[in-house]
Design goal:
The complex is a heterodimer of chains A (about 180) and B (about 575). Chain A has about 180 residues and is of the alpha+beta class. Chain A is built from six helices and nine strands, in the order E-H-E-E-H-E-E-H-H-E-E-H-E-E-H. Chain A folds into two domains: about 90 residues, Alpha-Beta Plaits, CATH 3.30.70.260; about 70 residues, ACT-like. Chain A, domain 2 (Alpha-Beta Plaits, 2-Layer Sandwich). In chain A, strands 5, 6, 7, 8 and 9 form a five-stranded antiparallel β-sheet that branches. A four-stranded antiparallel β-sheet of chain A has the order 2-3-1-4. In chain B, helix 17 links the parallel strand 15 and strand 16. The chains are: A alpha+beta (about 180), B alpha/beta (about 575). Bound molecules: thiamine diphosphate and magnesium ion (MG).
Chain lengths: ~180, ~575
């Protein structure tokens, strides 16, 4: 079904459990859906974890997937949002030969213009960090590529929703103001 | 508690089971679960362990037990191959919502991940087919986790749970204290219904001219048979069943219009596409029920009463969803609907039935042709058991025939593998059913193919002395596959014909009384003789080799294109 494919950010609040990542990814595997990115981290609530998963599927499918995720015993709640409904970022790291930093004036200009930061400089290499949207980190990638990238890595998406998710209400914690 | 009060993790497992009112376990021992078996030995006056002849048999026996008793089936197995042998039964229990707790032994925790002898990642393997699973590496965690396992297995929409316990945790000493699990904060077994949805359902029902009910196992799992009957009797709505809903309403009930789906009855299938309101009760719109979704009940409004929110709008978009246990929600609807009858509409089902009777049923159950039919065997069983037997079926033509023609007077009397269609299910499931309902007659109806997938459980039936009645309908074919080959693959019978062993000799080899019938005139008396026996009994009936099951909705076709020949 190729109708109305959208990018969705899924946010899942869960108990901390060893097998849960497997259980959640199995839901996508079973339906042959590609996970574009997945991050997991502690949430704003003690001992509660948060998964952020990005997928491109139809609205009908995302609704079904959310219910399958919520059906898992240790999932407290799951939400889905379109890009418009979230604030989201990714971080990328670029490892470049130090030689090019000194030889190629242009590189400094690229770093400045793309509002990236130099995290580390050593005699052999230096590391640039850029946080932003996918097109921004990608643009920087293409600008740096000619100078020889030693390594490149990009994080999964992290995201917060514009609307509250009211997770503490669901848990009856009443910490939300 | 002082030091001497400490017990081993293995003993804790047994005590937990006793706390959960378990008195019967099916299983198979091996290295990684030996400490638990040692405790089973000590507690054998409280806990009966039945040694099946294969771990798959243990799971199906536990399923049969659970399905007729409403209790949780319990299975134990060792690590590695013992654990992997459980997978088919677990998957079957998952898709058919059967409450089951499986306990597997695991290599010692310091060996995890080392590819130790009989180490297998059963948590990873079983994750997609369990409602929940968990590995225990410390004895202190045993009571809490087992309590949780039982709570999860039986609450909400039931399902299988697997607990994997490392061998060192079974040996480790601990202070035992048990508390039943009553809630889990991240798990909501019973979704909320809204009165608004109840009221909208009521008004749709009141204004419907041609309503049709399709009910499933939710009615049985919710113990809602009476509430269901009151609902249909007040509204006068014709009601059809899915294969797992079978027996929730007596066969002879005037509003029972038969089975829906691939081999269901003519009327309810065709009229699914003519009704103006479809009321789905505790069922999940499986593709074997709906046929082609693009043409399924498009003209109708649809109400779905369902305990599992994930089933709502999964396959069929519905107009109103009433979430929750139908035992609670149905009476709320019944109370507010106006009393009605739908005589003309009901008579449509009756006229379709007449057509089906003339074209299919008559020759199935009162055949004039030479060879014996599966249908007449089922009719003889009905007559001899007076419709009071629990019928356990395997998978294939005999299953469809048995479910179409078996007659039932009480609920929880049909045990079959529906969602997974697991050949080999029936023999061990019948053993479990007999042990779960010892006062009832249990008749297993099995194909010659599926029978040979778990035939070794004859040993368990013999050893336990369970008076299971086993009927093998022998057509010397993997009949259902052969039927498809005949209809859709121009009779290319690729690997479906079987040269079978002497089934009677095999049964007798297990010291089970056995008989073979191949003549019509011997059938009635042989069925009677089988049912009169107080012991396990095996009856082989040689049936026509190339008979087909009709009606049939070819896969991908619309329910209204059901074929009678
Ligand atoms: C474990 C398993 N393997 C394969 C199948 C596919 N299958 C469905 S029905 C059937 C034939 C069953 O033959 P038999 O048990 O003789 O029953 P019959 O249809 O002849 O009544 C097969 C092979 C299955 N359902 N389960
Ligand atoms: Mg056969």
């Amino acid at each position: 079904m190729s109708k109305n494919i959208n990018t969705y950010t899924i946010s899942i609040y869960t108990e901390n459990n060893i097998g849960l990542l497997n259980r959640i990814s199995a839901i996508f595997l079973k339906r042959h859906i590609n996970i574009e990115s997945l991050t997991t981290s502690p949430s704003e609530i003690d001992n509660i974890f948060r998964f952020v998963i990005v997928v491109s599927i139809s609205e009908q499918n995302i609704k079904r997937i959310i219910k399958q995720i919520e059906k898992q015993i240790e999932v407290i709640a799951a939400f889905f949002h379109t890009d418009k409904e979230t604030i989201y970022l990714e971080t990328a790291l670029y490892k470049v030969k130090s030689k090019s930093l000194f030889d190629e004036k242009h590189i400094q200009k690229i770093i400045k213009e793309s509002q990236a930061n130099i995290v580390t400089v050593s005699p052999n290499y230096f590391v640039i960090e850029k946080t932003g949207w996918r097109n921004e980190t990608e643009k920087l990638y293409h600008s740096l590529e000619p100078y020889g990238l030693l390594q490149f890595v990009r994080s999964g998406r992290i995201s917060v929703s514009k609307e509250p998710m009211n997770i503490s209400n669901i848990l009856g914690l009443n910490t939300d103001k | 508690m002082n030091k001497s009060d400490k017990i081993s993790g293995a003993e804790a497992v047994i005590r937990c089971l006793i706390e959960e009112d378990v008195n019967l376990i099916y299983g198979y021992p091996g290295g990684a679960i030996m400490p638990i078996y040692d405790e089973l030995y000590k507690f054998q006056d409280k806990l009966n362990h039945v040694l099946t002849r294969h771990e798959q048999g243990a799971t199906h026996a536990a399923q049969g037990y659970a399905r007729v008793s409403g209790k949780v089936g319990v299975v134990t197995a060792t690590s590695g191959p013992g654990a992997t042998n459980l997978v088919t039964g677990i998957a079957d229990a998952q898709i058919d919502s059967t409450p089951m707790v499986c306990i597997t032994g695991q290599v010692a925790s310091h060996l995890l991940g080392s590819d130790a002898f009989q180490e297998t990642d059963i948590i990873g393997i079983s994750t997609p087919v369990t409602k929940w699973n968990c590995q225990i590496t410390k004895a202190v965690d045993i009571p809490k986790i087992i309590a949780k396992a039982f709570y999860i297995a039986k609450s909400g929409r039931p399902g299988p749970v697997l607990i994997d316990i490392t061998k060192d945790a079974q040996f480790e000493m601990m202070n035992f204290k048990y508390e039943k699990c009553k809630s889990i904060r991240s798990y909501k077994p019973m979704p909320d219904y809204s009165l608004k949805d109840i009221n909208s359902a009521v008004s749709l029902i009141n204004s419907a001219k041609k309503p049709l009910i399709v009910w499933g196992q939710g009615v049985i799992l919710g113990n809602a048979e009476n509430e269901f009957k009151e609902f249909i009797e007040k509204t006068g709505i014709p009601a059809a069943w899915t294969i797992l809903g079978l027996s929730a309403l007596p066969t002879e009930h005037p509003l029972n219009v038969g089975m829906v789906g691939m081999h269901g009855n003519y009327g309810p299938n065709v009229l699914t596409n003519q009704c103006d309101l479809l009321i789905a009760i505790g069922m999940r719109f499986d593709d074997r029920v709906t046929g082609n979704l693009e043409t399924y009940a498009k003209q109708a409004k649809i109400i779905h009463l369902e305990i599992d929110p994930a089933e709502v709008n999964k396959n069929v978009d519905v107009d109103i969803a009433v979430l929750g246990n139908v035992k609670k929600t149905l009476p709320l609807i019944t109370k507010n609907v106006t009393k009605n009858s739908h005589k003309d509409w009901l008579s449509k089902f009756q006229s379709y039935y007449k057509v089906e009777y003339e074209k299919v049923i008559k020759d199935d159950i009162h055949p004039s042709k030479h060879g014996l039919t599966m249908g007449e065997v089922v009719r003889e069983i009905n007559e001899a058991s007076n419709g009071n037997a629990i019928i356990v079926t395997d998978v294939g033509q005999h299953q469809m025939v048995a479910c179409r023609y078996a007659s039932f007077k009480q609920s929880k009397s049909n045990v079959t593998s529906g969602g997974l269609g697991t050949m080999g299910f029936a023999l061990p499931a019948a053993l479990g059913a007999k042990m779960g309902a010892p006062k009832r007659e249990v008749v297993a109806i099995i194909g010659d193919g599926g029978y040979q997938m778990t035939i070794q459980e004859l040993g368990t039936i013999f050893q336990t002395g369970s008076a299971v009645k086993i009927v093998v309908l022998n057509n010397e074919y993997l009949g259902m596959v052969r039927q498809w080959q005949q209809m859709f693959f121009e009779k290319r019978y690729a690997s479906t014909e079987m040269i079978n062993p002497d089934f009677v000799a095999i049964a007798k080899g297990y010291y089970i009384d056995a008989k073979k019938v191949d003549k019509r005139k011997e059938l009635k008396s042989s069925v009677k003789k089988m049912l009169n026996s107080k012991k396990p009994y095996f009856l082989e009936v040689k049936v026509e080799k190339e008979a087909n099951v009709f009606p049939m909705i070819p896969s991908g076709a619309s329910v209204s294109d059901v074929r009678l020949e």
